[in-house]
Amino acid sequence: MNTFESLVPSGDIEQRPYARALVALLIGAILSNMLSAPVVTASFGIWPFVVTQFALLWFWFALTAKRLRNAERSVLGVTAVALIAVIAVVLLAVVLALQSSDLEAGAAAPWIPASIGTLIYPFVFLFNLVTGPSANAQDLTIAVLATFTVAPLLLMTWYSAWAALQPSELHATEPDA
User: pTM (2 decimals)?
Assistant: First the structure.
């Protein structure tokens, strides 16, 4: 499978190539968060991060749709998750744009991606809710918005693992009767 075939959601893909592509996609997703570092956003803005996120999302959708076709499963669920993830990327872009307008936000750690803070915020909020003082309305609002950016990642991870575990049904031979 060449690079351009992997960007088209039609066709099918076996389990092993799908798993290898998911590993490459995971590495790309982790590295793409560096595009939200204050040093990068100060020079180029958040657009490289947003474009990269949409490209990675399309690549995930195309791969998972092919895998589900190979397993003779419906692609409706992966389409719904991808649409939810599009909304999450837009929301994350808005949050990052608001953060990048604060000139002192990245002064202490200019190479730490801003997207990481947004993605771990719901977990930190829950930990503080259990162990610390009561939360105010602003903390709750930020936690809810951050949860909307994290939830699609969890859905995509679950859907990717489920698709990888599905047996290949396409081109399977039926026993002679």
Answer: 0.78
